[in-house]
Amino acid sequence: MSKEYENQNVSYVIHGNYQLPCITTKEQNELHIGVWANRHRQYLKQHHCIRYYNLLTSERLYPYLAEIEEQAQTMFSQLVKLLAEKENVSEKLKLDNPMLWVRKMNNIRNRAMDIVNSEVIFV
Predict the structure, then answer these.
(1) pLDDT per position as a tens digit, 34-61
(2) Residue 14 near residue 3, CB atoms below 8 Å
């Protein structure tokens, strides 16, 4: 059984022996969050739940995740480009030996993903 009442401009719902405040947030703009932001959100939810709920209740979670997404995507793109140049993985290699190019690019992308995860996502 739950009963709702209002006390000092705060609404409460009684569930059993507990009085729980009714918390609602303003409607937030729909922001696109991609794979990087979703990974970070899951990490926060599992390992830093107080920080996650503070961001959620203060309505700063989605702008924060959008910033993380942009930062991670930029870092990933720059790392892939830098590592490809460093290892001479070019369009010429792509034309001459496509399978070798795919192997090298997959290796580069995986290393870049590990770096972004360790420096941006799982922090």
Answers:
(1) 999 999 999 999 999 999 999 988 889 9
(2) yes
